Amino acid sequence: MCFSTEASFAAAAVITTSGIIAYKKAGNNDIRFIAIFPIFFGFHQFIEGWVWLASLYYSFAGLLEVSTYGFIIFAWIIWPVVIPVTLWRVEHQPKRKKILFWMTMLGCAVTLVLSFFLLTKEITAEIVDHSIIYDYGGHTASSSWFRGIYVLIVTLPNLISSRGKMWMLFVMNMITYSISRVYFNEHVVSVWCFFAAISSIIILYIVHEQTRDVKAQKV
């Protein structure tokens, strides 16, 4: 599989478009908070498109550091909090809502740890084998146990959520993560985020189903 500047910008366009469609379709339903995920994913891919440009072309080299840090801030700081807190907010079942609350707290703790790395380590990006490796202080991957916690924080809330078919998002995320880990181990941060395009299509489907059910209940 090949990744490139064009692939990142194309993915950004597809993901953002699906997010806008999903958000408009959601209307005033609280599922709109989930519908906004693809817009975030699209912006994340758009930033990585600039990492590609800055890495490949001298005229854009001055943007490499800011785009690299921008991409990592999304991956490390925003997602571990936004995903669990959003699903906690829209959850209606008390037991599930309590679990999602504690997952949000754990997500905040993960973000604090990663913020420390962000502030104390130099983050660099390098193109290797048609995808981007993000290196921090000589490391390209965190310890296995911490990595496992991170993955659970950004995927498990989808399985816990009682909102219809959110479990599909969990399954898809785990499949794409496994593919990224097995075939693109050193590039997993970049590659897994790229696969967000697939997740965004699923979110559009979930929003469609949820809004249809709401309309049916009103009839």
Task: Describe the protein's topology.
Elements: H1 5-26, H2 32-35, H3 37-56, H4 64-90, H5 94-120, E1 123-128, E2 131-136, H6 144-160, H7 166-183, H8 188-194, H9 196-218
Antiparallel strand pairs: 1-2
Could you walk me through the main structural features you see in this protein, from its secondary elements to its overall organization?
- This protein has 219 residues and is mostly helical.
- The protein has one domain.
- It contains nine helices and two strands; from the N terminus they run αααααββαααα.
- It has helices at 5-26, 32-35, 37-56, 64-90, 94-120, 144-160, 166-183, 188-194, 196-218; strands at residues 123-128, 131-136.
- A two-stranded antiparallel sheet has the order 1-2.
- Helix 1 packs antiparallel against helix 3, helix 3 runs antiparallel to helix 4 and helix 7 (166-183) packs antiparallel against helix 9.
- The longest helix is centred in the middle third of the chain and has 27 residues, at 64-90.
- The model has no long low-confidence stretch (mean pLDDT 83).
Task: Report the portion of residues in β strands.
Answer: 5-15%
Could you tell me the number of beta strands?
2
Q: Give the averaged pLDDT, no decimals.
A: 83
The largest sheet, given as strand count, sense and whether it forms a barrel, is:
2 strands, antiparallel
